[in-house]
Amino acid sequence: MKLLVTPRLLMRPFAESDLGDLSALFADPAVMQYIGPPDSLTPVDADDSLHEMMADLEANGYGMLALIERREKRFIGRCGLTKREGSDEIELDFILSNHAWGKGYATEAAKEVLRYAFNVLKLKRVVGLAHPNNRAAQRVLEKLGMKHTGRRQSGGMEVLKFVIENTISKPLSVTSRLSSLAYL
Questions:
Q1: Which site in 51, 72, 91, 151 is 20 to 30 Å from 158, CA atoms measured?
Q2: What is the pLDDT of residues 86-106, one digit of tens each?
Q3: For 4-179, CATH number?
Q4: Residue 172: partners with Cβ closer than 8 Å, 6 or more residues away
Q5: What is the Cα–Cα distance from 27 to 141, expressed in whole angstroms?
């Protein structure tokens, strides 16, 4: 998972030079309102998160990628796969800067990450989590074909859990379903 490209996005591994953008993303209360308490991610936390994302990608072959809007060459967030501590599930995760909201970037990025998860990594299942009040994130997960399966605890809060399955006997059906999604 070194580089993924969509019509509007470049999704690449994080680098040290991304620390300022990542810190700004984590410092925005509007962005973080459904992620955790507003003071939950300080600049030190952003630095730790950056290094953890870089190490996870190297160790696992999957992880979080920096989202770069191709036309403006501007950092707009992160998207990728992660395995939460204490869980054996692989989760699709995305966080976008508020200036990138409502433009279909989350769906576009998540669709490409799922395509990679199913067609390259050959994962059988991916989960997505969304805060009960974050309808935008829930809509992205639903557009991807994920089904709401219940609630669980994550990061000290209750979240909605969504799941999408990929069967080995039908990998093209998932790709076809993902390919048919319209970019918003």
A1: 51
A2: 778 999 999 999 999 999 999
A3: 3.40.630.30
A4: none
A5: 24
Which pair of tokens denotes residue 111?
Answer: 């669709």
Cα(40)–Cα(37) distance, integer angstroms: 5
Q: Rounded to 5 degrees, what angle do the CA atoms 32, 61, 144 make?
A: 55
- Determine how many CB atoms are found less than 10 A away from the CB of residue 84: 14
Q: Which of 80-94, 97-111, 115-129 has the lowest mean pLDDT?
A: 80-94
HSE of 122 in the Cβ direction (CA atoms, 13 Å)?
A: 2
DSSP 121: S
Q: Calculate the alpha carbon distances from 103 to 14, 140, 172 in Å.
A: 23, 12, 27
Handedness of CA 144, 149, 155, 156 (dihedral sign): positive
Residues 136 and 161: beta-carbon distance below 8 Å: no
* Residue 145 exposure: Cα atoms within 13 Å on the Cβ side: 18
Nearest to 95 by CA among 144, 61, 129: 129
Higher pLDDT residue, 156 or 3?
3
Local confidence band at 153 (pLDDT 50, 70, 90 cut-offs): confident
Cα–Cα distance for residue pair 167/181, rounded to 1 Å: 20
Q: Describe the strand order of the beta sheet including 157-165 as a list of residue ranges.
A: 4-5, 9-13, 64-69, 74-83, 90-96, 125-130, 157-165, 147-154
